[in-house]
Design goal:
Layout: H1 2-25, E1 37-40, E2 44-51, H2 65-85, H3 92-113, E3 120-126, H4 131-134, E4 142-145, H5 147-175
Antiparallel strand pairs: 1-2, 2-3, 3-4
């Protein structure tokens, strides 16, 4: 419970607070244009993007995307809760990753179900060096994301690390 109280909840609140700020600071991009805030010109900016799809904007604008990803989010939260209760996250790294997943999933799920919204608010924009050359159709911009997306990506990396650590521990225990 402490992981959810001291990690998931604060990150969820940070995600929602930053999205609220973006919604107040930038006009709706569907109605009027807006100037981004260039934090590091040519590399990092803040702007407002609406995403009804998933990572990298896949299925963005699809008629049933919010329903599909809303259900996926609810199933994922349920699965994490079940795995947690059954000891599926045995070490600190995997518990932190589960808490990060919960905050990220809840943050984006909240955006999808808020009446009148129906999209995830993304606002972190990057132009990594050479990205435009590797992916010319992007105009050099990495897909915009938010705090919840960051939590999900970090959690995925931590789960990979945890799985390698667990395999190594099992091999060590088998040799002993």
């Amino acid at each position: 419970m402490k992981y959810f109280l001291f990690l998931s909840l604060p990150l969820y609140l940070l995600d929602q607070a930053t999205k609220y700020w973006v919604l107040q600071r930038f006009p709706d991009p569907r109605v009027e244009g807006h100037e981004p805030i260039h934090v590091i010109p040519g590399f990092f900016e803040l702007h407002r993007v609406h995403n009804t799809g998933m990572a990298f904007g896949m299925l963005n604008g699809h008629d049933y995307a919010n329903w599909i990803f809303g259900v996926i989010g609810l199933v994922a939260i349920s699965a994490i809760a079940i795995f947690w209760r059954k000891g599926g996250f045995p070490d600190r790294v995997s518990k932190v990753s589960a808490a990060l997943l919960i905050s990220g999933i809840m943050g984006n799920l909240t955006d999808r179900i808020i009446p009148g919204r129906g999209y995830v608010v993304d606002f972190l924009g990057f132009q990594p060096p050479l990205y435009g050359k590797l992916f010319p159709s992007t105009g050099g911009y990495f897909p915009s994301f938010n705090v919840a997306d960051s939590c999900i990506c970090i959690a995925a990396g931590l789960l990979i690390i945890a799985s390698f650590r667990q395999v190594a521990a099992e091999k060590k225990a088998a040799k002993a």
